[in-house]
Design brief:
There is one protein chain. The chain contains six helices and eleven strands. By secondary structure, the protein is of the alpha/beta class. A hairpin with a 5-residue loop joins strand 9 (about 175-180) and strand 10 (about 185-190). The chain is globular and about 45 Å long.
């Protein structure tokens, strides 16, 4: 089993994403970290697209918002989009987090709000970077969604540190969670692919059962589809 984990260049090799995956049952040697500039020379059984900088608006047909705080990460774009495209084409499981949700939406033809504070101001705290494990606001999960099944609830409290969000969802994706102000917080596919994209950061919520189950189900699905036996206890 091989899981691709796309990361920013400044994150340490051992980080909360790796910790969450290994706690969910992945072996450390099964996780391949990909950073901007890395060559992608192998196929993967599953993909985690981690948080990071902003997707280039040119990829969804727009110019950079002049008054917004848009910081395009072309290096991550060059890794994230091809890795996701391969996973989509082959029907591999994908867990997309924060920037990852935005990549998935744009890759499938959707668009983004480039800067929530200037384009869609709200009292809901979406950008709270300092306390990563703090629950900043609730999200409402769609009944019958994969995410609601994993969480075991239609309401969960999440952390939040993003200034962008989904504007128009891609046609083959369905919204499965929203914040109280209507900001889209999760996407899944309309078919039976295992693709779950969330706007918050479950990798930081170490004490949250729903976050643990999300990573565990992803790892189990990857292992099942790869044909590998479970990791030893």
């Amino acid at each position: 089993m091989r899981i691709a984990l796309t990361l920013d260049g400044d994150l340490p090799e051992e980080n909360d994403y790796v910790l969450a995956l290994t706690e969910a049952g992945a072996r450390r040697e099964e996780i391949v970290v990909l950073r901007p500039g890395d060559a992608v020379e192998e196929e993967f059984d599953g993909v985690v697209i981690a948080g990071g900088g902003d997707v280039d608006p040119a990829l969804y047909g727009r110019e950079v918002l002049a008054e917004g705080k848009v910081k395009v990460d072309a290096g991550r774009d060059a890794i994230d989009f091809p890795v996701f495209a391969q996973a989509w084409q082959e029907g591999r499981p994908v867990l997309a987090i924060c920037r990852g949700l935005q990549v998935v939406n744009v890759a499938r033809g959707g668009t983004l709000i480039q800067d929530l504070p200037s384009e869609s101001p709200s009292d809901v705290p979406h950008q709270r970077p300092k306390e990563r494990n703090r629950r900043d606001h609730p999200v409402i999960l769609s009944a019958g969604s994969r995410l609601a099944g994993i969480a075991g609830s239609q309401r969960i409290d999440v952390n939040s540190r993003h200034h962008q969000a989904v504007d128009r969802p891609a046609a083959d994706l369905v919204v499965t969670a929203t914040a109280p102000d209507g900001v889209i917080e999760a996407l899944e596919t309309r078919d039976d692919r295992w693709v779950v994209a969330v706007q918050w950061h479950p990798e930081n919520l170490h004490d949250d059962p729903a976050s643990k189950r999300l990573f565990r189900e992803f790892v189990e699905e990857v292992r099942k589809r790869s044909g590998n036996s479970p990791a030893p206890e």
